[in-house]
Write a structure and sequence with these properties.
alpha/beta
């Protein structure tokens, strides 16, 4: 899944050698008024960064009431722009809208129900001193609505609730893909590989699919074989986990959906790359988790048997989703597409910031 961390000389496109570090545009996608307070907290955490963002782009997914309300909320805030999703409904199109509107040489993504620690952007920006680095992700910690992790919920499956899971390497390390809710990309990465594929990721309240960031990162590595993708576990955000997602029913639904998503990713980039990290995860990380759970059960520690059982159930459910998704893909029942998110004023940035006012958006 990962390789040892790397270092490199500063400079190059988007680097600090000429005009200083590139600015960072932060994209937050929102779709429901139910998360109003969460969205405000997410924006506030970006505006409180020790390394200020160039701008925050709030992209609203086909919800006119929320769009108008956010536009009014931030109408006097110069560093926050509110935009309507210009593509089809879903997270991928929302992110693509933010990318196309961004002015920064780096584009970062934050979930609408998460808050970033104060040095989040600083750790991202630091890594881009190496011109080979095209993407940097961070560590996402769960904020359980109940106040604590459910005893049966295995850390190996924290990706189910959008968080960093046990099995990822610590430190700043090279990886195949970053995780979309806490990630950043050099702007030129999208000029090279295109945007997020629509038809793979989440779509409002429908089945909780994922995998769009995996597909993009593999596509990026193919377009730019010299590209380096990193995870830096110092770039921390805290992600809210509602009570509905603490239940086994959601766990089962999400793991099944992940199987469906992986089938689409494999269709797009091939099973070799599409499942490369997953093979290590299922053959090394998960068996070790089952052993730990059974050991805890033998030692009468709470939740051990439940965690072991949840790991087995998660694997089987994901495998079932993958089988169903593979059949659908072969029959042509699922489609997705990659869009061009180049600068509408003329294409590639060269990793540098764009001047103010290009392009515009919805403002209050």
């Amino acid at each position: 899944m990962s390789e040892p961390g790397i270092t490199g000389a500063p400079g190059g496109p988007g680097g600090p050698d000429a005009s200083g570090p590139p600015g960072v545009s932060v994209v937050i996608c929102a779709y429901t008024e139910d998360r109003w307070e969460d969205v405000l907290a997410a924006v506030a955490s970006v505006r409180a960064q020790s390394r200020p963002a160039l701008e925050t782009l709030l992209v609203v997914d086909h919800n006119q009431v929320l769009l108008d309300r956010l536009a009014e909320e931030y109408q006097e805030t110069e560093d926050v722009r509110v935009l309507a999703n210009a593509g089809p409904r879903g997270l991928s199109a929302g992110r693509n809208t933010g990318i196309a509107a961004s002015r920064g040489g780096i584009v970062a993504f934050l979930d609408d129900d998460a808050v970033a620690e104060r040095d989040w952007l600083g750790h991202f920006a630091e890594a881009y001193a190496d011109p080979r680095v095209m993407a940097v992700g961070g560590r996402t910690e769960p904020l359980w609505a109940s106040g604590r992790r459910p005893g049966w919920f295995p850390e190996e499956f924290d990706w189910v609730v959008g968080c960093t899971y046990r099995g990822l390497p610590p430190g700043r390390v090279r990886v195949r893909n970053v995780l979309g809710g806490n990630a950043s990309f050099r702007r030129t990465a999208f000029d090279a590989a295109g945007g997020f594929a629509t038809g793979i990721g989440r779509d409002g309240n429908k089945r909780p699919l994922g995998g769009e960031e995996t597909e993009l990162c593999i596509r990026l590595s193919r377009a730019r074989p010299d590209a380096v993708l990193l995870i830096d576990d110092r770039a921390v955000i805290h992600h809210r986990v509602p009570e509905t997602r603490e239940r086994f029913r959601y766990f089962r639904t999400r793991t099944y959906a992940e199987g469906l998503s992986k089938a689409l990713v494999a269709r797009s980039v091939g099973a070799g790359k599409g499942l490369e990290s997953e093979r290590r995860y299922t053959t090394r990380v998960l068996p070790a988790g089952v052993v730990r759970g059974l050991r805890d059960a033998l030692l009468a520690r709470p939740g051990g048997a439940g965690r072991a059982g949840a790991i087995v159930a998660g694997v089987l459910t994901a495998a079932g989703g993958y089988a169903v998704g593979s059949v659908r893909a072969r029959r042509g029942g699922v489609t997705f597409s990659v869009v061009d998110v180049s600068d509408p004023e003329g294409g590639a940035h060269g990793g540098e910031d764009r001047p103010d006012g290009e392009p515009g958006g919805v403002r209050g």
